[in-house]
Hints:
The chain has six helices and no strands. The chain has helices at 14-18, 26-41, 44-57, 64-77, 81-93, 101-104.
Amino acid sequence: ATAPSQLPKKYQDRARNSGTLRTATPEDHAAFSAVRTLYQKGAHEAAILKINAFIKKRPESSMVGQMYNLGGLIYLARKDLATAQTAFERALRFSPEPVFDHYVQYN
């Protein structure tokens, strides 16, 4: 895995954010699963609404990064590249671990 110091500087602030994240609850996992199912079925608008509601309701959840990542995938599928990039950057910033770091190396 890539060390955080090898990432672009704008992604290195994850360490500051991860200290404020709480462990995901079963409800958080269920919400993520529901959004992922909507994404897989192509119900992108419904998925985006649920992602936004989740982030607003549970901003301290360790699942926020994964929600932003799914949002990025949806915007990428819609060819809304600027919004996808923003979502992917937020996924990196709000991930408690370097789970997305290896993707950054190739994009």
